[in-house]
Amino acid sequence: MEENRKPQKRITVFSTPVCPYCITLKAFLKDKGFDFEDVDISQNEKKKEEIIEKTGKMQAPIIEIDDQIVVGFDKEKICQLLNIKE
Fold it and tell me: Which of 2, 18, 63, 75 is deepest in the core (most CB within 10 A)?
């Protein structure tokens, strides 16, 4: 295991491959040493419907940290939930 890994929360990113905010979010999480599940909602209709039901939104990215949902790349909120000091 790499030294820069953080105590792990359950992180799921609901994204699409062409979304620039999705790409930025995933790069940010990797840079900060977090592992996450990446769900491509352009290819997974079931997961897309699940996240729309949870959030009422049909957009990407949506990040789920444990049971907290953040719509969009809201860096401040994501840092708060993951205890990242910027």
Answer: 63
